[in-house]
Automatic annotation (TrEMBL):
EC number(s) from the headed UniProt entry: 6.3.4.14
Identification of the protein by name: biotin carboxylase
GO molecular function: ATP binding; biotin carboxylase activity; metal ion binding
Positions of the Biotin carboxylation domain: 1-443
Superkingdom: Bacteria
Domain ATP-grasp: residue ranges: 120-318
InterPro entries cross-referenced by the UniProt entry: ATP-grasp, BC-like_N, Biotin_carboxylase_complex, Biotin_carboxylation_dom, Biotin_COase_C, CPAse_ATP-bd, PreATP-grasp_dom_sf, Rudment_hybrid_motif
Keywords assigned: ATP-binding, Biotin, Ligase, Nucleotide-binding
Enzyme class, spelled out: ligase
Length: 443
């Protein structure tokens, strides 16, 4: 096992990684911006290094500053968490070239999956189902129009280099396509430095289901189980549950087999997620993208499998065998993303936390990045904590989620707890028969 670990991230995921590393006897190093100096992850690490100001480009995305911190503290390995530099192949390659252990997949796999068009083509060649769409970038709006006519409206206009639900728009006809193509292309150039655009079939009623995979140190790829991620706002997840209420044993077998094929196609190592769109009317599913990192929603998979995915990541990076028992799953888990945002329109509402009381009890887990007296900065994502509940079945998990939401007290920044209270009484959600349009239908 590696002996020292620098966590190149912040907030709840940095704190969560540090917790596991310390349990395993690994010395932990936190890096932080000056704004984050008093956050729990900084205080709980064995050592901490300030790497720059609040602007992420000058701190958490500053590869040179992070590498300098690793060298100055004698770190043996770097864990990138999610976001920031976690899916940057150049950073992963540089870490390895500097003689450090990268706790994640290889740079080639990150690069292959980072471009949606390339990923689609690789998956199709590997026998993984993909949605009808373009196999080459639409370099002009006319090329996009021809692709849309071939696929059939409505279509999704997507930034090829995008991720996290950003750089996507729906077009129902030629006029909308012209408008949305230019918006997506411009946004992609500004945000990702790559204006490549992909045209894909849009499914008005679809579920978002993903599979957790692990590429093991011995070269095998295994699939754990699926997660349901259809409760979204602006194509970004708010609630996840495992297992998915939409997935039958037969469909699960097909999903997991496809996820293994996806990982094998790029010689995947470490933790990753194969995301799919599921047509509830037909049971057909299509590859959406592969996230080459630890997912925000990984705790619900941990709970139903009785494992620690961060430990598995560290074992793989250390060349050690996995401790996962694929046959062991039980119960039902739900994760609610507690964000500093308006619960109606979901606009960010950062600020200083004056009250922070977490719920507790059997089957309740809170992975938080903040405590009372700390400040949610406008410079970063609005995620404050993840509320995770576990029950013997879905109904019990929902009941525990209701009680936990009612027992979670936050004052200062805005928060979306009232939205979750509403969702957990919503008949469509309670039925389990919902899709990615559920939040828009609630508003």
């Amino acid at each position: 096992m590696i002996e020292s670990l620098l966590v190149a991230n912040r907030g709840e995921i940095a704190r969560r990684i540090i917790r596991t590393a310390r349990r395993l006897g690994i010395r932990t190093i936190a890096v932080h911006s000056d704004t984050d100096a008093d956050l729990p992850f900084v205080l709980e690490a064995d050592e901490a290094v300030c790497i720059g100001p609040a602007n992420p480009a000058q701190s958490y995305r500053n590869a040179d500053a992070i590498l300098a911190a690793a060298k100055s503290t004698g770190a043996q390995a770097i864990h990138p968490g999610y976001g920031f530099l976690s899916e940057n192949p150049d950073f992963a390659r540089t870490v390895v070239n500097n003689g450090l252990v990268w706790v994640g997949p290889g740079a080639d796999a990150i690069s292959a999956m980072g471009d949606k068009i390339n990923a689609r083509n690789l998956m199709a060649a590997a026998g993984v189902p993909v949605a009808p769409g373009s196999s080459d970038p639409a370099a002009t709006v006319e090329e996009a129009r021809r692709a849309a006519e071939s696929i059939g409206y409505p279509v999704m206009v997507k930034a090829s280099a995008g991720g996290g639900g950003m750089g996507m728009a729906v077009a129902n006809d030629d006029a909308e396509l012209h408008k949305e193509y230019e918006k997506v292309r411009t946004f992609a150039e500004r945000m990702f430095g790559d204006g490549s655009v992909l045209i894909e079939r849009y499914f008005p009623r679809v579920r978002h289901v993903e599979v957790q995979i692990l590429g093991l140190a011995d070269g095998r790829v295994i699939a754990l189980s699926e997660r349901e991620c259809s409760v979204q706002r602006r194509n970004q997840k708010l609630v996840e549950e495992a297992p998915s209420p939409a997935v039958t044993p037969e469909l699960r077998e097909r999903l997991l087999a496809a996820a293994v094929k996806a990982g094998e196609a790029v010689n995947y190592r470490n933790a990753g997620t194969v995301e799919c769109l599921l047509d509830p009317a037909t049971g057909d599913f299509f590859f959406l993208e592969m996230n080459t990192r630890l997912q925000v929603e990984h705790p619900i998979t941990e709970i139903i499998h009785g494992i620690d995915l961060v430990e598995e990541q560290l074992r793989i990076a250390s060349g050690m065998p996995s401790s996962v028992d694929l046959g062991k799953t039980s119960g039902h888990a739900i994760e609610l993303r507690i964000n500093a945002e308006d619960p109606k329109r979901f606009f960010p509402g950062p600020g200083r936390i004056t009250t922070w009381v977490e719920p507790s009890g059997e089957g309740v887990r809170v992975d938080s990045g903040y405590t009372e007296g700390t400040t949610v900065s406008q410079n970063y994502d609005s995620l404050m904590a993840k509320l995770i509940v576990f029950g013997s079945d879905r109904q019990e998990a929902i009941e525990k989620a209701r009680a936990a939401v009612a027992g979670f007290a936050i004052a200062g920044p805005k928060n979306n707890l009232p939205f979750f209270a509403e969702l957990l009484e919503n008949p469509e959600f309670l039925s389990g028969d919902y899709d990615t349009g559920i939040v828009s239908r609630m508003r």
